[in-house]
């Protein structure tokens, strides 16, 4: 999975004109991980979340889902079901790749809905850098401040604890809305 994830990330970087994709040098087996997911059936409500809407906090996620279904992606402000395919893997862009690419690639918002009658299983591989790795930009000008993966993860955990949900990349913009409004106000 590690080799596949690095290959895909490398191809995406090359498509942007970057053959020297230094972020891959900081991704190794110590920081990347696999998550095995089991979503038990829920007979009470067809609208029960297995995973609430979110984006992934890594560079890339490679996902294999079983034939039960339940994965949905946000597309054009609507939730779209991802039909299970036993011969395909799903590749999601994560927040770090979005920041590195200056928003050329977007981190996809997704959720999982549980099934009423049967278990749902999936396997996800997360391509992550070391916690000390600075998430730079592929270009000099960036909408994001310089930050490390460790700082990003810590902020995500604090936001979830404080607000009940992840705020994500907007926390690391060069200018947030309050700063922009303050700068645009008449003096």
UniProtKB/TrEMBL annotation:
PROSITE patterns: FE2OG_OXY (PS51471). Residues 28-129 form the Fe2OG dioxygenase domain. Signal peptide: none annotated. PANTHER family: 2-OXOGLUTARATE (2OG) AND FE(II)-DEPENDENT OXYGENASE SUPERFAMILY PROTEIN-RELATED (PTHR47990). This is Gibberellin 2-beta-dioxygenase 8-like.
